[in-house]
């Protein structure tokens, strides 16, 4: 992928970090339940690599907060760290995970990044942002139980978006026909 295309896709993903929460917040509590900002950060890492994913994940929440007031400023550092970890980890994992099946690669990378991002964000809350008052129960509730609908949405929607981007020629197909006879997994 050219540098210009990678920059354009990253910029679109950052813009989606601002626009998607506005759309989701039209419904009561939908933004909190479905975590719409996570989708572009994860997608950017998958499509453009770890550096672009990290940039999108860090810039998206900050820009959204400055433009729309969502998330509120006290939440911004935690969200920046979490989303930057998601974007970076999906991009990094996509470089190393090669099962020869696109769907398997995508799910391994998404689940790995989601777990890694939640661990990194939880550790940051424990050590810095909420030092002394953060518990394992609070971490489990906020990052797994309360966000379960968001996890399901992300696992359902992101692979479809990746396939659509591949079909449209906006991102490169993961496997060619010549790689052991496998055509996109």
Give keywords.
disordered C terminus; 74% helix; 185 residues; 8 helices; Arp2/3 complex 21 kDa subunit ARPC3; mainly alpha; globular
Describe the structure.
It is globular and about 55 Å long. It has a single domain, classed as Arp2/3 complex 21 kDa subunit ARPC3 (Orthogonal Bundle). The chain has helices at 3-24, 30-34, 38-48, 50-68, 76-96, 102-129, 136-145, 148-167. Mean pLDDT is 90; it is low at 180-185. α1 (3-24) packs parallel to α4 and α3 packs parallel to α8 (148-167). It contains eight helices and no strands. With 185 residues, it is mainly alpha-helical. The longest helix has 28 residues, at 102-129.
Describe the structure in brief:
With 185 residues, the chain is mainly α.
CATH architectural designation: Orthogonal Bundle
Mean pLDDT: 90
Total individual domains: 1
Per DSSP E runs of 2 or more residues, the count of β-strands stands at 0
- What kind of sheet is the major sheet? none
Shape: globular
| Rg over alpha carbons | 16 Å
Instruction: Give start-end ranges of low-pLDDT stretches.
Output: 180-185
| Termini Cα gap | 20 Å
| Helix-and-strand structural type | mainly alpha
* CATH-defined fold name: Arp2/3 complex 21 kDa subunit ARPC3
Give the topology string: H per helix, E per strand: HHHHHHHH
Percent of residues in beta strands: under 5%
What's the tally of helices?
8
Under the CATH scheme, which class? Mainly Alpha
């Amino acid at each position: 992928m050219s540098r210009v295309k990678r920059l354009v896709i990253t910029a679109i993903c950052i813009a989606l970090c601002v626009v998607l929460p506005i759309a989701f917040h039209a419904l009561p509590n939908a933004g909190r339940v479905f975590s719409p900002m996570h989708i572009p950060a994860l997608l950017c890492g998958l499509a453009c690599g770890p550096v672009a994913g990290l940039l999108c994940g860090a810039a998206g929440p900050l820009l959204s907060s400055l433009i729309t007031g969502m998330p509120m400023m006290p939440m911004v550092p935690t969200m920046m760290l979490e989303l930057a970890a998601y974007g970076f980890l999906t991009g990094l994992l996509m470089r190393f995970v090669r099962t020869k099946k696109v769907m398997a690669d995508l799910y391994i990378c998404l689940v790995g990044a989601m777990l890694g991002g939640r661990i990194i964000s939880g550790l940051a809350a424990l050590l810095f942002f909420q030092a002394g008052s953060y518990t394992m129960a609070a971490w489990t509730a906020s990052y797994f139980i309360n966000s379960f609908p968001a996890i399901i949405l992300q696992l359902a929607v992101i692979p479809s978006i990746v396939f659509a981007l591949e079909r449209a020629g906006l991102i490169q197909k993961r496997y060619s026909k010549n790689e052991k006879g496998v055509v996109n997994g």
